[in-house]
Amino acid sequence: MNRASIKRIWVLSETKFKSFYYNKLIGSYLIFPLGIALIMKFLNEQINNRQLSVEELTMCINISAILNVSYVAYVTPATLLAEEKEKNTLRVLMVSSISGFEFFLGNLLPVVVVSSVVQMSIVPLLGIHFSVEQLGIYLLVSLLGIVSSSVLGMCVGILSQSQMSATLITMPLTMLLMLIPMLKNLSQMMKTIADNLYTGILMNSIPKLVANQSLNLSIQNWAVLIGELLLSIIWFLWLYSRNGFDKD
Questions:
Q1: How does pLDDT run across 166-218, given as a tens digit for each residue?
Q2: Tens of pLDDT along 65-93?
Q3: Are 63 and 36 contacting, i.e. CB atoms less than 8 angstroms apart?
């Protein structure tokens, strides 16, 4: 990667970072999981008049972390790209000298960085103490999920005609990624599906980490995390190769 390529990626990324501040809707997405974590902790402590138990901490971090991965990291890039499409700047980018790889990284990196910071901030916010090894596993599994969701969001953004349509299109998959892992105990089928979703693997990992138990992900877990990430990237590259204007 040459200096010009790095500069183009940085300029595109810088524009996205600024959007987090100027676009109030996007800003609200980013702080939503942190707000949910604080509210749940406050309400639990006020109602029970004590510190949160391990089970309650697990519930709080599960909901907040999964919300960040399956909603914030997914809807944010979709909304940003749809906004560019509304302003007709997306077409200019896609037919300019910027390559698909530069476009991909320039849009992906800001969302991944900010969502990862939010994901990491949930832990001290809830007063959870992870060891260095546990924190590393939590962030690695979260990172793979965040990147997968972000790439899927970019695909939706390319397909959407407006920010409103992007938000509506993302809702079904968001509900799938959130609710199935949360409701996995209702049936064996739900559990099987949850075990094959990156959000389900993250949700299965958190209770062991909060309880200070060792966590060893299986080959199937890694295959799901990496496989779904690769599938989302392949879908994005296919959409980008068609310039994303099939429905224009």
A1: 878 888 888 888 889 888 888 899 899 999 999 999 999 988 888 878 778 89
A2: 999 999 889 988 888 888 777 776 655 55
A3: yes
Q: For residue 91, which amino acid is it?
A: R
* Residue positions counted in the chain: 248
Q: Give the chain's end-to-end CA distance (angstroms, integer).
A: 33
The Cα–Cα gap between 201 and 93 comes to 36
Sequence-ordered list of residues with C-beta below 8 angstroms from that of 81, at least 6 positions apart, any chain: 90, 107, 153, 154, 156, 157, 158, 160, 166
User: What is the domain partition of the chain in residue ranges?
Assistant: 3-241
Do the Cβ atoms of 216 and 137 come closer than 8 Å? no
pLDDT (average), residues 4-31: 77
Task: Give the C-alpha distances (Å, rounded to integers) separating 134 from 17, 64, 108, 129, 206.
Answer: 29, 18, 26, 9, 10
